Amino acid sequence: MNPIAHSPHAHAPVSVAKVMGTVLLALTPATLFGFWLYGFPAINLWAISLIAAILGEALVVRMQARKVRPVIMDGSGILTAWLLALSLPPFAPWWIAVVGSLFAVVIGKQVFGGLGQNVFNPAMAARVMLLISFPLEMTSWVAPQQAPGWLDSLRITFLSQPIDGMASASLLGHVKTEFTRGIGLDQAMLGYFSPLDFMWGSRAGSMGETAALLLLVGGLFLIAQRIITWHAPVAMLLGVAVPALIFNAIDGNHYAGPMVHLLSGGLMLGAFFIITDPVTSPNTVLGQIIFGLGCGLLTWIIRTWGGYPEGVAFAVLLMNAATPIIDQYAKPRIYGRDRKGAALAAEKK
Question: Do 91 and 194 fall within a single domain?
């Protein structure tokens, strides 16, 4: 009879590639809907983002004398580029995707040491860099309508020549502009916001903003598959909805209600696919709740009083910087010890 091997005896068949693949699968419905809504320009931008990320990461890894195939095949760089593509205007020029993807995988990820070492979410770091460096290209939206043909898409993506009559404004940008003109919220929102339309994606925005319902379904799928937990996403949604509800009740003509915030911008994408990144978020349940609440509250503050209409990416980066502090003060209790760290057995003595 063979002796019993040392513990642990249970092994979960989970790998980085499997986790990344599951997340990509959860993003697929919203992505395909974005392709259908915006057509070939969105497909071009998505493909360019992924190709640039794969080639850029392969080059950096090769320069480090490391094996390229394992790094590429783990899917983390592809997921980063995919998330970045979903946060870009669908008719943005090709070089926006290239610059953003290279920044994400090289500066945001590999410079810190690769997978598991980065401090900030690479996709959100790249989005903020692009937004600050190229504000015009990053805030040029188009209204959902009949998607342009393939030849028109080449002109849009590679020659930066958008089709006339397709320019539009996102809901958050529209509200911010109208406030600047001194127009109240009630008048600014009149005929512009329909919860049902925004839930299904009939609005201007990035591919990651178009279908809140599909992103929600994808997030619930990840929770069901135990890839993520509900703590951070629910906390972020509450962090936005609660102050929006309070201030809207105080002055509904100056502060948008919770439905506007929940269904607009990249909130659903951020809540279920960005802040749940295990590398740049806290490890404990309490830490994840604090992290999610902070992301939601900062998002609402930036949207309400900040200079930018959308605040998800900025909020995520700020809370990424606070993650080590949160981990320091939100430690789990070690089994057999009280919260002060004293051994229970010693206390009994």
Answer: no
